[in-house]
Write a structure and sequence with these properties.
The protein is an alpha/beta fold. The chain folds into five domains: about 45 residues, no CATH class; about 50 residues; about 170 residues, Ribonuclease H-like superfamily/Ribonuclease H (Nucleotidyltransferase, domain 5, 2-Layer Sandwich); about 70 residues, no CATH class; about 120 residues, no CATH class. About 45% of the residues lie in helices and about 15% in strands. The chain contains 18 helices and 15 strands. The strands form four sheets. Strands 1, 2, 3, 4, 7 and 8 form a six-stranded mixed beta sheet that branches. Strand 1 and strand 2 form a beta hairpin. The chain is elongated and about 160 Å long. The termini are far apart.
Amino acid sequence: MYSKIHQLKTEKLNKSQVARMLGINVKTVIKYWNIEPQEYAKQLRQSYHRSSQLDEYKTNILARLREYPDSSASQIDDWLKEAYPESSFRSRTVRRYVAKLRKDYDLPKVINNRQYEAVEELPPGQQLQVDFGETTAATTGGRKKKLYCMTTVLAHSRFKYAEWSDQTFTTARLTVILRRAFEYIGGIPQELVFDQDKLIAVSENHGDILFTEEFERFKQSLHFKVYLCRKGDPESKGKIEAVVKYVKNNFAKHRLFTSLKDWNQAQLDWLVRTGNQKEHGTTKKVPATVHALEKQHLRPIPSVKLPEDIVTATVRKDNTILYKGNRYSLPLGTYQPGKKVAIAIMQDKLQLFDNQTNILIAEHVIAHGRGLLIKSSNHRRDNTLLINQLQEQTLALLQNTKVAQQFLTAIRKEKSRYARDQFQLLQLVANSHEPEIIEQAIAECLRLRFISAVSCRDMAEYLSSATRAKEQNPVIDETFPNKSVPSIKAEHRKVTAYTSLYGGMA
């Protein structure tokens, strides 16, 4: 260019003519019009070593590019603003500097492109798109931490909100974060867009969507519409797809995790500094500026009682958790050292979720007062297996006869609370009398409906004493076959006593 300018100058063309001939700005022609070749060569050599305002951060930028070669220039820009808030440089300068470093130090960046179909812009206040993402972050201890994110974006202004959790999402947690999103954007839009997610809907039902009970209650309390995307239709919510990618790649990628509280605070700072402050690539407008106008088209948030925030509680050794001074039971076997459960409050219900599987494991009505134990009958000790084993052992001692099986089944049914004690007593009886006596005693108890181990014991003792009396005096009375005469009066007294004692119970 320098040579061409001076060649045309020797042909007696003026500066404007040279600029038009070369298709360059006239100021560029003026800059080189009177420069001698030696001076131009000196300037050219100096330009190779021209310093940049980013040179003082060069070592740190290179270290970051080498450690995370897939970092974008936009992410480097945000990282510099976060690490050095006192600095001031334009994003274009950062892009050019990063590109130069990649070229000079052979640090190429692999780009994965994803295509979307263009859709028409929506009016202000009409739509909020919602989607979820997840990432794995490195912790200060050198481990990996799985994190889950819910993001929202107003379709008109592209104003964003994002919040993270270290647990998988439940419907209760979803509604809590949605409430905070509404507070952050300053109101409720007419419509919310979701994927077909089990947290939102049970079934699409050919257009008559069946929402989950908790979400339906939340939706009706805040009076918004829901647009549920069809399967395989990401274009219908392409704006939030891009936001999820933006949050994961620009904010979360290569960020060190210390605590969930600090992570979410850094997320809010990023939204103010970058997410809602940088000019949007499609609209060429700053989301925060457009949001100031769109906010006027959002509906106020009604003052209704929504689910409280979700917390966690440590499972105690007695399979309970402590919440506001009261103990709430969990199923037997829930306790493990250090195990925690997630607590969600839905109206007057306390819901307890497994911290790993996110499955609802207990639900209690919230108690008023302090020092109370709220225990579900389903959480009591399950002794069914032990009782079954004891019943089988007892049946074996009773020679496994049909009448014995009927008797044990009847005891199990009528005296379920004391089945263990009943079976243990029957085992003592079986070891104290002959099998024939036991079988006869059980048959007599069944005939008289004396469903009791105590009755069986007394009947066995009576029959044993009658047998001994017969052996001592073999005289037979026709009224009482197989009974000796001296035992007749005693038998009368005992039968009368049994009838008097058990007749009412039968």
